[in-house]
């Protein structure tokens, strides 16, 4: 290792997802079921609002906490959703920026952070970057948020419980009862509760639930990247106890500075855009993929997001199956990128219908099943 490189960078590897994306660039016309972002474009009214902001000179730094109209709109929404709670909000540089600032604000070296396995790839890396200790709670085979397992993982060194519902990579949604119990656990043990809610609008069965409804000290991270296809725009937001938010802002001043101002004006317009049509479309895509694949793969039907996390065929690791799939022109993500286990793989159904049909057909054939109904 080069002598100038900091020791902290050796505690985690580069994202395996990026490696798959690099591979995708080398394939000719792959069936791409790997990308974790919507397949629709940013709605034109949002684009127009952003262009208007650029052309009217709103190109400088914004206040670190974000432009006032967006913050005020978000704060009104948060206060209506959580009446009586003392919560503040600021605009982060994407939800990833919110995660970074959360960890830097609350995690000391040696602190333990509990989250489910499988997990979003960034979680263990960020915990280690801060000198913390990732504590992964096995949620196989159904990927449920089990309060009993969470409680069993709590030690005197536990500083934070991190929940993600709907979850990446499984798409599984936690029940309100389980979220309530975990919220109560965090309060009982005086542990920070961080809720990653970036997929909150991609919720297909029932109503979205947040642990913040049951624990007013919950720190919530959300944003516009997934819901409005604004992944490259870097506009997220965080709300929670004012002292925590103030600390995160202090760090943002010396790191991200602010979210891009023109994109914030686009996000303000995005709050007026209905997503119902897109959500209905993704529910239909979910139903199609579950219907096609469930007879051939062991999988849990996702209640949200746009992912499936099937188990590889018997006798085969997830990474070995993914390698065969990629050789056959189907881009999927090996499950061991998101997990200590190498038994599953991730599919994104954020793709057009024909791509999903072709992808399902190829995967079923790779599973060795010749009874495919769409082949």
TrEMBL record:
Q: From the UniProt record, which GO molecular function terms apply?
A: transaminase activity
Q: Write down the EC number.
A: 2.6.1.-
The record ties this protein, via InterPro entries, to: Aminotransferase_I/II_large, AspAT/PAT-like, NHTrfase_class1_PyrdxlP-BS, PyrdxlP-dep_Trfase, PyrdxlP-dep_Trfase_major
Aminotransferase class I/classII large domain segment(s): 29-363
Q: Could you list this entry's UniProt keywords, alphabetically sorted.
A: Aminotransferase, Pyridoxal phosphate, Transferase
Q: Which cofactor does it need?
A: pyridoxal 5'-phosphate
**Top-level taxon of the source organism:** Bacteria
Pfam short name (any one): Aminotran_1_2
Protein family: Belongs to the class-I pyridoxal-phosphate-dependent aminotransferase family.
What PANTHER family does its record include?
A: ASPARTATE AMINOTRANSFERASE, ASPARTATE AMINOTRANSFERASE-RELATED
Protein name per UniProt:
Aminotransferase
Please name the source species. Answer: Rhodopirellula halodulae
């Amino acid at each position: 290792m080069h002598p100038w490189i900091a020791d902290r960078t050796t505690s985690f590897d580069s994202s395996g997802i990026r490696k798959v994306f690099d591979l995708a660039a080398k394939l000719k016309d792959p069936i791409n079921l790997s990308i974790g972002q919507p397949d629709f474009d940013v709605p034109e009214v949002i684009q127009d609002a952003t262009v208007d902001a650029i052309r009217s000179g709103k190109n400088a730094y914004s206040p670190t906490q974000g432009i006032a109209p967006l913050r005020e709109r978000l704060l009104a929404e948060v206060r209506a959703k959580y009446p009586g709670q003392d919560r503040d909000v600021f605009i982060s540089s994407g939800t990833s920026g919110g995660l970074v600032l959360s960890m830097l604000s609350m995690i000391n070296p040696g602190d333990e952070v509990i989250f489910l396995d499988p997990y979003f790839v960034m979680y263990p890396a960020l915990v280690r970057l801060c000198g913390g200790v990732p504590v992964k709670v096995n949620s196989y085979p159904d990927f449920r948020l089990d309060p009993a397992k969470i409680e069993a993982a709590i030690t005197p060194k536990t500083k934070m419980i991190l929940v993600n519902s709907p979850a990446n990579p499984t798409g599984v949604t936690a029940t309100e009862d389980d979220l309530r119990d975990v919220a109560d656990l965090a309060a009982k043990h005086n542990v920070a509760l961080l809720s990653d809610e970036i997929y909150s609008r991609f919720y297909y069965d029932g109503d979205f639930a947040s642990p913040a409804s049951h624990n007013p000290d919950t720190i919530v991270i959300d944003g516009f990247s997934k819901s409005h296809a604004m992944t490259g725009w870097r506009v997220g937001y965080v709300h929670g106890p004012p002292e925590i938010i103030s600390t995160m802002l202090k760090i943002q001043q010396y790191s991200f500075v602010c979210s891009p101002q023109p994109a914030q004006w686009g996000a303000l317009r995005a709050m007026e855009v209905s997503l119902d049509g897109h959500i209905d479309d993704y529910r239909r895509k979910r139903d199609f993929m579950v219907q096609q694949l469930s007879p051939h793969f062991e999988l849990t039907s996702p209640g949200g997001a746009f992912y499936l996390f099937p188990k590889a065929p018997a006798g085969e690791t997830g990474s070995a199956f993914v390698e065969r799939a990629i050789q056959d022109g189907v881009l999927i993500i090996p499950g061991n990128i998101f997990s200590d286990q190498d038994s599953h793989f991730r599919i994104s159904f954020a793709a057009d219908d024909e791509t999903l049909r072709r992808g399902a057909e190829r995967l079923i054939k790779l599973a060795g099943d010749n009874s495919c109904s769409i082949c």
